[in-house]
Amino acid sequence: MITHDDKKSEDSLLTDDLKTQVMRSWSFRTMAVSIMFALVFGSAGGVVATIYASRIPAFQKYVHPNDPSAPAQPQVKQSIILNEESATTEVVKKASPAVVSIVVSKDLSKIPGYGRNPYENDFFFPFYQQPQQAPSEPNIQQVGAGTGFFITSDGLILTNKHVVADEQASYTVITSDGVSFDAKVLARDPVNDLAIVKVETKNVPKLELADSANLQIGQRVIAIGNSLGQYQNTVTTGVISGIGRSITAGGGGSSEQLEGVIQTDAAINPGNSGGPLLGVTGQVVGINTAIDRQGQLVGFAIPANDAAKAVASFQKNGKITRPVLGIRYVLITPSLAKQENLAKDYGALIIRGQDVAIVPGSPAEKAGLKENDIILQVNDTKIDSKNSLTKVLKSFNAGDIIFLTVYSNGKEKKLSVTLGESS
């Protein structure tokens, strides 16, 4: 017989069993809902991850394994190489029609000492024929070759001064498509290796001068020129190897100091003089001017900003003018100051050499500068190895008034100078 207490226990068991069923039912529902949410959000996350990964080149081959347009990782490297090559070829394609060869011709029978090459030791490497004896009749021969490029569509050409230095020679310009023009030299830069030549033509392609103030060492460049005087529009590539170099360059029996020039390892061969040194944008960053015969792939180019100033001067005045102070100087370095027991270890020491220290009648003489004076500053710019006097004066024009800080006879003093004109 079941007692009350036993009956109560049975009811409790039934209740517990019902609770268990309810709990199991709730657990199944919770699990079902959880699985449903997991599937929904898991799918959404997969879609988002797939979209994101598809934008990363390294994962595209896994996201789109059968898509031929999705490049694998090695193809990305190949694409970069191809882009560099295509950029260079595109620059050459656009620039070459504006690059010209300049042929120098002369009646050799009228040259004193004909039969000997007076330019055989030129730093600039010009090309000259070396006939053995003087003929008895006129003998017009090519005696030199160089390069230039159009800077205006009506035929103005920029080149090196040493390419067209001979006032007794005649000059012929040959375009990239073989058309020849008689050329006239309109201007020669009095202090830099630049010149402007003109041919009668219209609507020719031209090159733009870049701002060369922010060039970087290692920047890729392209040189185009009349290599060896016979391989027209030869292309070489390289990088900018140095900036702000100072060199003494010779050509045509003379030499000149060139400051602030660009050094490059792009091969500049004989005949390249006057040709463009181009950046990857296709603009001219420099004008190729010289090579060092003692090195390999050591070439130099005049910065485009110097050329732009010369062109602007010509277009304004009909000639290239430069500001002149009228002194001969040597740049003081700490080692020179120690060696010569100088009072200052920087500045421009006015000193005589083969020429006088102060040019008679020059702005320097009028301002009261004397031999052995040291110019310490021009306006607020200190004269040192980074800012030579020649470099600083390039930023001024003839007629400008400048203020000099000068060390003279043991004292510093201020002088004002009105710059003269060299043309």
Structure keywords:
20 strands; 6-stranded antiparallel beta barrel; Thrombin, subunit H; alpha+beta; 423 residues
End-to-end distance, in Å? 138 Å
Placed side by side, the strands forming the largest sheet appear as 1-2-3-6-5-4
CATH superfamily of the largest domain: Trypsin-like serine proteases
What shape does the CA trace take? globular
Question: In what range is the share of β-strand residues?
Answer: 25-35%
Please mark out the parts with pLDDT under 50 across 5 or more consecutive residues, or reply none. 1-28, 73-77, 125-132
Helical element count?
Answer: 7
User: Largest beta sheet, briefly?
Assistant: 6 strands, antiparallel, barrel
Calculate the mean pLDDT score and round it: 80
Overall tally of structural domains: 4
- Series of secondary-structure elements, N-terminal to C-terminal: HHHEEEEEEEEEEEEHEEHEHEEHEEE
What does this entry look like structurally?
By secondary structure, the chain is of the alpha+beta class. It has 4 domains: 4-63, no CATH class; 96-198, Trypsin-like serine proteases (Thrombin, subunit H, Beta Barrel); 212-320, Beta Barrel (Thrombin, subunit H); 323-422, PDZ domain (Pdz3 Domain), CATH 2.30.42. Helices cover 26% and strands 31% of the residues. It is built from 7 helices and 20 strands. The N and C termini lie far apart (138 Å).
